[in-house]
Amino acid sequence: MTEVSSLTGRLLVATPALADPNFDRAVVLLLDHDEEGSLGVVLNRPTPVGVGDILAPWAALAGEPGVVFQGGPVSLDSALGVAVIPGGLAGADDVPTMESGVRPGPGGTTAAGPRPDDTRHGGASGEEPLGWRRVHGAIGLVDLETPPELLATVLGSLRIFAGYAGWGPGQLEDELTDGAWYVVESEPGDVSSPDPEHLWRAVLRRQRNELAMVATYPDDPSLN
Question: Where in this protein does the record put region Disordered (predicted)?
Answer without folding.
Answer: 94-129
